[in-house]
């Protein structure tokens, strides 16, 4: 398969935007990244995770069970580069580049017109996507989840266009099975996609029933371990913790409105606020929040998983996407394939809609690259309006200038503003404090870390940054529980809330806590700030 010059240039651009300053933008490893990194390191050294579980299918990170496949992809990077943030993020970046390439070939399978600009435009828009760049530079399993779905869909559509090549269907089945080991959202999206594809293309699959049966068997066999692990009581902890459909606060507020409507004799109000409708209304509100223009195209300075002052998509894509959806629906692409793309698009926010914190950029990440496909159709249509060559050339230059300005603004906001403004979200002060403690630990008989606020889950950051030997850690018993407020003890290191009036009496101790956990006028041996200069962590010696 030849790689066109345009695709090569797009991949180079994508690589520059994803590899540049990877080790320090984001400014320090996130809570998830240190967990993934240290558990990969532990499995590399001992064959077991922090809890002592041998080669887990689900990673018990902070008692939050999640698919572990990305952890295994990080192991070779740690073997080659050592335990560090670059090793954790590298597989994610490589997967994101693969996703850009797979998107190009997926769209080529949809758009069969020779020399169509749509595949290259789609790949280009994904390459410069703020949404994709932000998340692809994190060492997180969400990129593995997206990559497996995009590659799987590409191979599935390629099979449907070349039904004599049965291996494509089997390969697609393998990727969809692996997606279940990648990210939680795929456990919802992929079954819905596959059932939809089976219904839409039932005749085609029945006419090649041997290939279809083989793909089903292979996919089912590969999926059995993760399915069994996912329905266990411990694995359901994550869903129970994040489920929005049983929110007691929302139910209580709804019941008050129902009672008020009943007292007024308001029939319509009683229907709207009938208690049984609460889960449906929560789901509906959460689902449609992912299509709000304000969330998609604009942003504040401190929004989760978004570049400060920007949306997940560029503002000019409001026009190209709106036009592109209509053009895509009217295009001469096979009707069943168009319907499958729309199903992919509309089922992708469902995992985020049934959980808290909606709209959620990670849990709805599988919406990519549909936004870019629609945007490419929109741009292609706009350019087709200019039939005279000089007008088309002028329109192309103007659009190129608008996109260039957008990308330049993004690079400034992401590489300069974002690290300074949001370093607190990545617990940057803690990342700076731990090396100091590691250097001076020999001088103290006890070392106490707080485990809340700026030092949340400090035990895992300590294990990660000190590259604590997993063999020794398991000798201390490993992690008993990583619960949200759990305390930990590792030799002379304690990770628990600071009780200053008691802890100040401990002789020869080093105490690392949040500024608010100590008296304001206390003498410190070290203070650690966010990149915008706010002191978050103080170190006290007794």
SSE arrangement:
Blueprint: H1 5-19, H2 31-46, E1 58-61, E2 64-67, H3 69-81, H4 85-110, H5 118-127, H6 130-136, H7 142-161, H8 166-179, H9 186-200, H10 202-207, H11 209-230, H12 237-242, H13 248-264, H14 267-272, H15 278-289, H16 293-297, H17 317-330, H18 335-347, H19 350-353, H20 370-384, H21 389-422, H22 428-440, E3 446-449, H23 458-465, H24 470-475, E4 488-490, E5 493-495, H25 500-503, E6 509-514, E7 526-529, E8 535-541
Parallel strand pairs: 3-5, 3-6
Antiparallel strand pairs: 1-2, 4-5, 6-8, 7-8
Can you put this structure into words, describing what you see?
- This protein is globular.
- Strand 1 (58-61) and strand 2 form a beta hairpin.
- The strands form 2 sheets. The chain has a 6-stranded mixed beta sheet, covered by helices on one side.
- With 542 residues, the protein is an alpha/beta fold.
- It has helices spanning 5-19, 31-46, 69-81, 85-110, 118-127, 130-136, 142-161, 166-179, 186-200, 202-207, 209-230, 237-242, 248-264, 267-272, 278-289, 293-297, 317-330, 335-347, 350-353, 370-384, 389-422, 428-440, 458-465, 470-475, 500-503, and strands at residues 58-61, 64-67, 446-449, 488-490, 493-495, 509-514, 526-529, 535-541.
- The model has no long low-confidence stretch (mean pLDDT 92).
- The termini are far apart.
- Helix content is 59%, strand content 6%.
- It is built from 25 helices and 8 strands.
- Helix 1 (5-19) packs parallel to helix 5 and helix 2 (31-46) crosses helix 4.
């Amino acid at each position: 398969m030849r790689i066109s010059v345009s695709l090569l240039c797009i991949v180079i651009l994508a690589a520059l935007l994803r590899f540049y300053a990877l080790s320090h933008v984001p400014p320090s490893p996130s809570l998830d990244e240190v967990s993934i990194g240290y558990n990969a390191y532990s499995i590399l050294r001992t064959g077991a995770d922090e809890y002592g579980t041998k080669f887990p299918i689900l990673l018990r990170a902070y008692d939050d069970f999640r698919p572990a496949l990305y952890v295994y992809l990080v192991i070779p990077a740690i073997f080659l580069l050592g335990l560090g943030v670059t090793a954790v993020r590298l597989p994610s970046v490589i997967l994101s580049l693969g996703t850009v390439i797979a998107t190009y070939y997926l769209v080529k399978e949809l758009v069969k017109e020779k020399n169509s600009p749509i595949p290259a435009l789609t790949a280009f828009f994904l390459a410069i996507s703020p949404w994709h760049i932000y998340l692809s530079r994190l060492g997180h399993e969400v990129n593995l989840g997206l990559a497996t779905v995009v590659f799987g869909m590409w191979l599935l559509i390629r099979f449907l266009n070349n039904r004599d090549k049965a291996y494509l269907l089997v390969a697609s089945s393998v990727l969809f099975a692996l997606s279940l080991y990648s990210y939680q959202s795929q456990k919802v999206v992929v079954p819905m996609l596959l059932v939809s594809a089976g219904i839409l293309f039932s005749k085609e699959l029945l006419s090649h029933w041997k290939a279809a049966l083989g793909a089903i068997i292979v996919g089912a066999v590969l999926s059995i371990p993760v399915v069994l692990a996912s329905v266990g009581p411990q694995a359901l902890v994550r869903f129970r913790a994040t489920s929005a459909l049983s929110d007691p606060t929302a139910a209580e507020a709804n019941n008050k409105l129902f009672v008020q409507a009943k007292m007024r004799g308001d029939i319509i109000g009683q229907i709207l606020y009938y208690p049984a409708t609460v889960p449906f209304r929560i789901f509906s509100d959460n689902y449609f929040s992912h299509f709000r223009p304000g969330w998609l195209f604009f942003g504040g300075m401190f929004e989760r998983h978004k570049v400060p002052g920007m949306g997940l998509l560029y503002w000019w894509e409001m026009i190209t996407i709106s036009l592109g959806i209509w053009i895509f629906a009217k295009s001469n692409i096979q009707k069943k394939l168009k319907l499958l793309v729309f199903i992919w698009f509309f089922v992708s926010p469902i995992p985020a809609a049934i959980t808290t914190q909606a709209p959620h950029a990670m849990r709805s990440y599988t919406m990519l690259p549909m936004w870019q496909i629609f945007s490419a159709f929109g741009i292609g249509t706009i350019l087709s309006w200019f039939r005279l060559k000089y007008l088309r050339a002028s329109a192309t230059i103007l659009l190129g200038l608008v996109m260039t300005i957008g990308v330049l603004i993004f690079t400034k906001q992401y590489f300069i503003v974002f690290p300074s403004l949001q370093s607190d979200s990545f617990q940057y002060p803690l990342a700076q404090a731990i090396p100091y403690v590691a250097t001076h630990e020999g001088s103290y008989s006890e070392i106490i870390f707080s485990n809340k606020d700026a030092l949340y889950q400090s035990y895992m950051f300590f294990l990660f940054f000190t590259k604590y030997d997993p063999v020794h850690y398991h000798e201390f018993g490993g992690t008993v529980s990583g619960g949200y407020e759990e305390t930990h003890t590792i030799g002379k290191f304690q990770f628990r809330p600071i009780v200053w009036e008691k802890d100040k009496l401990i002789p020869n101790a080093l105490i690392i806590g949040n500024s608010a956990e100590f008296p304001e006028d206390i003498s410190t041996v070290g203070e650690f700030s966010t990149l915008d200069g706010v002191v978050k962590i103080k170190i006290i010696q007794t």
